[in-house]
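User: I'm putting together a small comparison set for a docking exercise, and I want a reference complex before I start. The sequence is below, and the ligand is heme C. Could you produce the 3D structure with the ligand included, as structure tokens?
Assistant: Of course. I'll restate your input first, then give the structure tokens for the complex.
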Amino acid sequence: MDSFEWNKIFGGLLAGLVALLGVSIASDMMFTRHLPEKPGYEVAGVEEAPADGGAAVEAEKPAAFYLASADVAKGEAVFKKCSACHNAAAGGGNGTGPALHGVVGRGIASHPGFNYSDALGGMKGKNWDFESLWGWLKSPKAYAAGNKMSFAGISKPEDRAAVIAWLNTQSASPLPLPAAPAEDAAPAAEAAEAEAAPAADPAAK
Ligand code: HEC
């Protein structure tokens, strides 16, 4: 082969590369601008952990603790995260998510005309009460793996309680909020046991 032929070969390769580059740029322009109709990513409720990790480490108390002092007005504001997909007004229809008027106390996956996932549909027969909503809104994914609500969950327990308490007001028959749990009873009993334990030891030897 002489150098002329080599030139042709390299020239051909180069042309091929340039063509590939052109195709990739063109396809980028064609495809990257289109967002999927149903977002496959989590759209809201992604709350950043505090920089010092403080609140994240603190153990969460039971739902009733936060619900007993829930801020209903704040709940209405928190619901803005949900309203892209849900309508909670009386007579409101289904959107991306099912209509939520009267959802507290309603059967899971029971709203007419909504095409629920198998994950949620499989829970039919159970009700959305304060406890189940607490689990669902903390992490929909953990509560019902494979469900189709693209929402990360509400990490702040105060916000979660607020939106549940507000949803409870969006109902023809709101349920009574749970009473605050008697917080000290359990730890006190444990402490008493711990004190009693060493006294029993010598006798056992
Ligand atoms: C990106 C859209 C989207 C957002 C945002 C969203 N949801 Fe949903 N939600 C859905 C979809 C879709 C379903 C149905 C899930 C399934 O069938 O798996 C659903 C289901 C539910 C259900 C179960 C209702 C039933 O009839 O069983 C409740 C309760 C609920 N969402 C509450 C909320 C609340 C409260 C928020 C805000 C904190 C929220 N959702 C945010 C889309 C969304």
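Confidence is low (pLDDT under 50) at residues 199-205. The two ends are 97 Å apart (CA to CA).
User: Thanks, that's exactly what I needed.
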